[in-house]
Specification:
Shape: elongated
Number of domains: 1
Radius of gyration: 25 Å
Largest sheet: none
Helix content: over 70%
CATH class: Mainly Alpha
CATH topology: Formate dehydrogenase/DMSO reductase fold
Distance between the termini: 47 Å
Order of helices and strands: HHHHHHHHH
Structural class: mainly alpha
Number of helices: 9
Length: 285
């Protein structure tokens, strides 16, 4: 008699059932892991695109503000940015996303803004503010939908990236747009100076909070230092060139470029975080 026939059938049946249950749980676990990985990669793709759109929406706001205020030298740059946004929007329409309505709303807002090129300065600014605000909300929603860090302590700084760093870039973008308009018209109203002073304070407060957090956890201290210097330089420019004198003499393009340098450094921190996440998840199988 073989060893198999010596084992009671009840034990064989129980063992088979246990194996079937374990196999089922393993299959479900693997399916859940694949689903999570697919979601993470999709969200990273969307965050990359949103980061590009955020930068270009902000740039479009600043250039259009300067153009409306009379500086025609900005028209060519504005045309290039508009074309780049159109390309990104075309890419957005092909996304496989869990946020289709939010994306459709962004695309609709951009198309409406693009189609109406006869807005006055205030309505142009407000339309851009709303578009960029919704872009940032979508960045925050997608970044928090799943744990992109996979619980790694060294990536705990990501929360600061999606909030303080992105918000600092946006306050800086608003200061760029407002200041470019002031520089183009070579004058400012009391309301504009109050608003610019408010933006200066917001940039100062948020950037200090961000740099304080990132100092202990962000991998590239050199990149962080470059960013801090660029933001401080921009704040000094606002103080000296726009808030410190009644009739600004700084050229609109020069001011725009100074602001852009600071914003680019802030967004480079976002890029570094996204690159680290791509490396992390690219190694996982």
């Amino acid at each position: 008699m073989t060893a198999l026939t010596q084992i009671p059938w009840t034990e064989l049946t129980f063992a088979a059932a246990v194996f079937a249950v374990m196999l089922t749980f393993y299959i479900l676990y693997r399916a859940a892991e694949r689903s999570k990985r697919t979601l993470i990669m999709s969200n990273l793709e969307q965050l990359n695109l949103l980061r590009m759109l955020l930068a270009d929406f902000q740039r479009h706001r600043g250039l259009s503000a300067g153009l409306i205020s009379g500086d025609q030298s900005l028209r060519e740059d504005l045309t290039r940015v508009r074309a780049r946004i159109d390309q990104s929007i075309e890419q957005a329409q092909k996304l496989d996303t869990r946020h289709p309505n939010d994306w459709k709303a962004l695309i609709a807002q951009w198309r409406a803004l693009r189609a109406d090129q006869n807005r006055d300065a205030d309505s142009n600014m407000q339309a851009h503010h709303q578009l960029i605000r919704d872009t940032i909300f979508l960045i925050e929603d997608i970044a928090s939908e799943v744990d992109l860090s996979c619980g790694r302590d060294e990536l705990s700084y990501l929360i600061c990236i999606w909030h303080e760093v992105v918000q600092t870039a946006e306050w800086s973008g608003q200061a760029r747009a407002l200041g470019t308009g002031i520089a183009a018209s070579r004058s400012s109203s009391a309301a504009q100076r109050v608003r610019l002073r408010f933006l200066h304070q917001k940039i100062t407060h948020l950037s200090r909070a961000a740099f304080g957090t990132l100092q202990s956890s962000f991998a590239s201290k050199e990149r962080l230092l470059h960013c801090q210097r660029a933001v401080d330089g921009f704040l000094h420019c606002i103080e000296q060139e726009l808030l410190g004198i009644d009739n600004p003499s700084i050229e609109a393009k020069r001011y725009f470029d100074q602001a852009t340098g600071a914003i680019n450094e802030l967004l480079a921190l976002v890029d570094a975080a996204l690159n680290e996440l791509h490396q992390l998840h690219g190694k996982q199988r």
